[in-house]
Specification:
684 residues, mainly beta, six-stranded mixed β-sheet, four-stranded mixed β-sheet, 1 helix, flat
Amino acid sequence: MRRRAAILFLAAGALLLTPEAPGGSAVPGDPTPPVVVPVITGTLGLNGWYTTNVTLTWSITDPESIILSTTGCDTTTLTSDTTGVSRTCSAESDGGTTTVTKTFKIDKTRPLATGSTRSRGADSNGWYNHALTVSFQGSDATSGIAGCNQVDYSAPDRANATVSGSCQDNAGNQSTALTSAAFNYDATRPQATGSTRSRGADSNGWYNHALTVSFQGSDATSGIAGCSQVDYSAPDRANATVSGSCQDNAGNQSTALTSAAFNYDATAPQATTSPSRPPDKNGWYNAQLTVGFSATDTLSGLDSCPAPKTYAGPDNVLAVVSGSCLDRAGNTATASYALRYDETAPVSIHGSPGRQPDANGWYNRPVTVTFEGSDPISGLDGCTQTTYRGPDDPSVAMVGSCSDKAGNQGSSGSFTFKYDQTSPQVTGATPSRQPDANGWYNRPLTVAFAGADATSSIAGCSSSYYAGPDGASASVTGSCTDNAGNVAGGSFALKYDNTAPTIFAVNTKLGNRSAQVGWRKSGDTQVVEVVRVPGRNGAGESVVYRGSEDGLVDTGLAVGHKYEYRVTGFDAAANRSERTADLVAAGALLTPAPGAKVKAPPTLDWIPVKGATYYNLQIVRGRKVLSTWPVQSSFRLHRTWLFNGRRYRLRPGVYRWYVWPGFGRISASRYGRLLGSSAFVVAG
C-alpha cells in the first residue's frame, strides 16, 4: 500500500512538474479508457427476445493501466418475463471511464392458441364442397403474437372434419396445438340414377301437351338434396329426350343423365276449308254453298276430318262454317270458313234531289235525283242517279232502282217534283206620280213593274225606288219573279234632276235713291227671280225682276230705309236655290249709309255732279269740326285733323256731313245746290 501511495504521489508530483500540452492525454502512458464487454448466458429467440433465464457478467480490460474502480458490474441473473430491463456497468482506469448499458427483453412463456375461423361460409346446407382455409388465432402477454397457422383443407370427405394449428409469439415460443371446430366436407359429385315422366301418353303413345320428367339419384356422404324436374313442351319430335342431374346437400352437381325417349307432338294438324264456289259479288254470297274440310300432319299423322257442310242462311255479315280435324297425337285443329251471306234484295227505295227546290217547291235549273234505299246486311252497292234538264212540267216523275253489295237487285222507286226553267216576261212599269216639271222628276219616285209566266205563274214584281243620280236619260231597273224563282229584268226611262241650280254670289251697289243688284249663276239656271222686301207701293214684298240676266237696277228707294233682295234661281226641273243681300238706301251721299256705325275712320262717298270741279264737305258734331274742298267725289277721313287752327280727333258719337258741288276755281266760291246730308255713328 505504501508503494502504491508513493507511486501515486510521484505520479502526482510528475503531473504537477509537467505542463499539459493542448489536446494531450490526461494521463501519461494510458491514452484510452477501459474496455467493458457484457458476457450473456441464455437462449436468444427471435426479434431480440430471450426465451430462457439470462445471466449477465462483464469483461473489463485495460492493457495500459489498472482498473481503478467499477460500478454495477457484478454478475446478474434475470429470471422474469419483461418487455425491457436494462443493466449498466461503469469502469474507471488511468485512461478514463467507460460506461456500457445492456437492455434485455425476456419472454419464456408459450403463447396461447385461442380459436380458429374458416375462410368462408359453408357452400350448401352447412357443407363445404371445395377447399377451404382454417385460420387460428392466439394471444401472448409479453412479446405478442407473431402469427398463427392457416391450414388448407381439401380432403377427405367426412362429416365433423377438424384440423389442428398453433401460434408463435414474437420471441419464437410456440403454443400448444389447438383443434379447430368441426365442419362438414363433401367434394364428391352425387350420381343421377334414373328418371320418370309425370303422366302417361295422351293418344297412341304420343304426348300432345307439356309433361314433366323427374330425375332420381344418390350420394354417399352429404346425401341427395334434390334432382332436376324438366318441363317439356317443345320441340315436337319422335323419340324426344331431356337431360337432368342431381345435387347433394353439399351443393355438388351430378353428371347430366339423359332420360328415356318419348314421342311428343303438341302441334295441331293444318286444317283447311274449300268452298264449292267463289262469292257471287264483292265477297258476298247470295245463294247456298258447300264447304269441305281437309288437313295434314307431318309428325304423328292425320286421324280424321268431318264431312262437307252446306250453308243456306240466315243472312249474316259474318257467317262461319267450321269443322275439326284430329291427328294421332290427339291434337284438334278447327278450320273455319268465314263468309258474308245476303240473299235479300234492298228495300225502301226512294229518290232524293241533290238540292232543295229553288223557290216555292219548284226547280228552275237542272236537278240530279239520286235514288237510295236500305239493305241491313251487305249494304247498298249502288243506286241509279239521273239529272233532269227539262222540259218545264208542273209534275215530273223520275224512276230509279238500287242493288246491294251481294248482287241482289231491288224493286223500282220514284220521285215527283215541279220544274220550270223559263223566265217570266216583264209586261210594264208604272211610276208612282207624274213628272214634276217639263217632263223632269226632281225628287224620289217609285216605279212598279208588272209581268206574266206561263208555267209556274208570277210570284211578284219589284218596285224600284229612284233618288238619283241626275240625268236626262236616267233609267230605273226592276224585275219580275215567277214561282219557280226565275227572274226577268225590265227598265223605265226618265229624266231626273234633284240638284238645285247655284246662285254663287249677290252684290249690291248704292245709287241716289237706287240700288244696282248683280249675281252669278250656274249654267243650269233657267230663270232668276228677285223679290224685294219691303215691296213697292207699300207691299210687304214685290217681284222686282224675273228673267235670265245677271243683274237689275232698282229705283225709287227711300233714303235711310233698309231693303232685302232675295235672288232665286230655277232650273228646268223646277229645282231652286236662293241667296239674299241687304242694304240701306242712300241719296246723293252714298257711304257710309245713313246711320251706319263705323269703328275706323270712314271714306265718305257721294254722287259726282256733272261739271263740278270741286266739292265743299262739311262735318258737324255739335258744331262744325271740318270744312274741306276735295276735287273728287270721295274723301278719306283721318283719325285726327286740323281745322281753324285746332286739332280734332275722331271720337265716339254722331257725325252729320254735308256736300255742295263747286264750279270753276275755288276762289270764285261758285257752289251749286246742296247735294244732301247724311249721318254716321262712330262706335265707342
